[in-house]
Structures are given as structure tokens and as C-alpha cells.
Amino acid sequence: MPTTLLMLPPQTTTTRAWATRLAGAVPQIAVVVAETEHDAARAVRHADAAFGTLPDALLRDAGKLRWLQAPQAAPPAGYYSSALIAHPVVVTNFREIYSDHIGAHIMAFVLAFARGFHHYLPRQLRREWRREPNDSGVIHLPEANALIVGVGGIGAEAARLCAAFGMYVMGVDARRREAPPGVLKLDGPDALDSLLPLADFVILTVPHTPETEGFMHRARFQRMKRTAFFINIGRGMTTRLDDLVAALRAGEIAGAGLDVFEQEPLPPDHPLWTMNGVLITPHTAGHGPHLDERRFEILRDNCRRFLTDQPLRNVVDKARWF
């Protein structure tokens, strides 16, 4: 029997187009498009591989399944269920397709804070012509330190860009052992508390995992410089927003640039919307051109690797969710 790849529901115009393209590009794989849960339940028993979200109810019948391509770089909480972790299936994801877009978004926050835009944007809305004093409101980046928490593909790109502006870049990462270009000091997660007081910008790019859930809390904000800025473009569940609000109100940090939140959408009555020194984007750091083509290229490449028993790209440590 041919090797079977099951495209799990729900389907979109994009996933249907991918199925057609895969059938032409990798004809050795039989691509089955399941439009409904009933279709998926019937097909999963014979599937060698699958793309999408696999509920536990389907996983129980997936006796042949050896590879699952997750539909996102960081699927929602609950994707890596205990049943999926225990199942022998290898999971891969779409990480490292967003690095250029998110790296630019990070630098937009850094440059906005460094040049005082968090002061001037509210004044623009009030039509208020008022400058900050000449010797304040600006961070000279060649004299500033950036701490990047999570030096994967996105963190490494952010490090390269920060270094290009002359910043001293430190990194904390649970996996990486060799510093990428731009990172002058790389440590493991245990060093985070000792590095926070040194940074002018603390930049989170880490995924949501059991270890990172809520790990940016009040005590860690209190370790930061009162003049430092916090930037989170990783995952909202890594940061306790009530603690961040409290730290901002107490003047324990200077401001925050946020693209991700514990609760999304951020409620319209949340205090962060109107706090001084806070810049907000609605989970758009990864937006940009070419993403669907990059996703398809990984899916196609992994199909070819799967057929020839080569190592798959972007294998996930299921127990750690990334």
C-alpha cells in the first residue's frame, strides 16, 4: 500500500491547494483530505502521516501513524496532550519561518522606546507639541544592553539586529550551547535572574512550555532596571499580566512592548491599553509575506524525508511542547 498522508480538518483553500501540490510534487504519497471529523475518523486508521490537529479520540485509532506535522510553530495550549506525548508519533512544527518578520517587529519596539515614541504617540493624539528634555527620553543604543530570552531562530535574528545597532547582546536559552552571531554572552535559564538587572531591554521570544508558563512575574520585573523596557513577542502565557501592570504602576520598569497576552484578544477595559510607556500590537509580529509558501516548503520537504527515512525538520520535544 502507498504511504498515506492525512490532511486533518478543518480544511481551508490553502490546505486543499497544498494537498493538490503535494500529490504532484511527491507522487509516492497518497494525500487524503478529510473534510469532516467523520472522514478523518475513517481515514486515520490507515494513515502513516498527518497534518493538522489530532484529537485524542482520533489518536486512539492511529495505530500506523508515525509522523504528525503541526499546523503552527507553536500550537495552542492543549495540543500536546498526555496521549499525544505518550504516542510514538514524531511531531514536527513550522518554526523558523517567522524570524525576519518578528525580528523586525522586535526592533520596531526597541527603536520606538529608544527614541521616545512611547511619549510622543499619545501627545500626537492630543495634538500636543511638547518635547522631552534634551538629555532625556533617548537611549543611546551603542551604550545599551539587550537580554534575549530564547535564542532560537527568532531570538538569533533579533540578536543580529540589536548588534547591528551597536548594542551589547546577552542571551538565555535552554537548548543552544553556542552563541549565534551578535550574542556576546550566552547562558542557560538558571542565569536569567542574574542577567535581568543588567539589561536595558528584556526581549522574550520563548514558546509557551511547562517551564515558561508565568515565569515572568513580579519578582523578575523587580529585578530589572527601573529604566528598562520589557518586550514580549513569544507567547502570552509566559507573562503574568497582573504582575506586569503592578510593576508598571510602581515604576519598577519604564515600559513594555507587547504583541502577545495571557488573554487574547486583550479585553478593551484592560489597564494596559491606556498605561504610559506601553506599546501594543494585536499578535501581529509574525505577519508578513511568503509565510504560506514557507510552510508548504517544510511540509513538502518533510514528506520527501519521511519517504526515505531521513531525519525530519523541526522535530518537537513533545513533553516540552517545542
Write the layout of secondary structure elements.
Layout: E1 3-7, H1 13-25, E2 29-33, H2 37-43, E3 49-51, H3 56-59, E4 67-69, H4 82-86, E5 90-92, H5 99-114, H6 117-125, E6 145-149, H7 153-164, E7 168-172, E8 183-187, H8 192-195, E9 201-204, H9 218-223, E10 229-232, H10 241-249, E11 255-258, E12 278-280, H11 291-307
Parallel strand pairs: 1-2, 1-3, 3-4, 4-5, 6-7, 6-9, 7-8, 9-10, 10-11, 11-12
Helix pairs in contact: 5-7
Protein model, in words:
The chain has 322 residues and is an alpha/beta fold. The protein has two domains: 3-96 and 289-320, Rossmann fold (3-Layer(aba) Sandwich), CATH 3.40.50.720; 99-280, NAD(P)-binding Rossmann-like Domain (Rossmann fold), CATH 3.40.50. Helix content is 32%, strand content 15%. It has eleven helices and twelve strands. The longest helix is centred in the last third of the chain and has 17 residues, at 291-307. The radius of gyration is 22 Å and the shape is elongated.
* Total domains: 2
- Write down the overall geometry: elongated
Please indicate the percent range of residues in DSSP E strands (runs of 2 or more).
15-25%
CATH topology of the largest domain: Rossmann fold
> CATH-wise, what's the superfamily of the largest domain?
NAD(P)-binding Rossmann-like Domain
Quick recap:
The protein has 322 residues and is α/β, with parallel strands linked by helices.
